[in-house]
Write a structure and sequence with these properties.
Elements (H helix, E strand, L loop, with lengths): L15 E2 L1 H6 L7 E4 L2 E4 L11 H7 L5 H7 L3 H6 L4 E5 L31 H26 L1
Parallel strand pairs: 1-4
Antiparallel strand pairs: 2-3, 3-4
InterPro entries: Cyt_B5-like_heme/steroid-bd, Cyt_B5-like_heme/steroid_sf, Cyt_B5_heme-BS, Cytochrome_b5
Protein name: Cytochrome b5 type B (outer mitochondrial membrane)
GO molecular function: heme binding; metal ion binding
């Protein structure tokens, strides 16, 4: 008969890495990077990256969240990250630790307890597009009335 103390927790233990740990993995033999406070070992993926190796080498050993989001990766690319996931960034190294943001992500990966910084392009580009469409609509409706 098992006691409560003998039961294993249902959630697997997550390995925590510091930014210093990630910075040390910045060689051709071992490349780690951080995206949304999750640590990935992308060593085996470097040659397969559609954007070329150079892009990954520039981000190696650092937090690549902003660059990853600015490119606008597809859902498939986000799901592909799961196979390279090795742990979470230590909470002391998370950006904006004091401000918790809860975001529902539909990309099938768990978000660590750290913040997620949203890219400016995720809201600015659609806002500019709406303004331009509004002006175009206004221009064409005024132009057609004067004819």
């Amino acid at each position: 008969m098992a006691q409560d103390g003998d039961k294993q927790s249902e959630e697997p233990q997550v390995t925590l890495y510091t930014l210093e740990d990630v910075r040390k993995r910045n060689t051709a033999k071992e490349i780690w990077l951080v995206i949304h406070d999750r640590v990935y070992d992308i060593t085996k993926f470097v040659e397969e990256h559609p954007g070329g190796e150079e892009v990954l080498f520039e981000q190696a050993g650092a937090d690549a969240t902003e660059s990853f989001e600015d490119v606008g990766h597809s859902i498939d690319a986000r799901e592909m990250l799961n196979q390279y996931y090795i742990g979470d960034l230590h909470p002391d190294d998370c950006k904006n630790q004091g401000k918790k943001v809860s975001i529902l992500i539909h990309y099938s990966f768990r978000v660590p307890e750290c913040d997620i910084s949203l890219s400016w392009s995720s809201w600015l580009i659609p806002a500019v597009a709406v303004v331009i469409l509004g002006f175009m609509y206004r221009f064409y409706t005024v132009d057609s009335r004067s004819s």
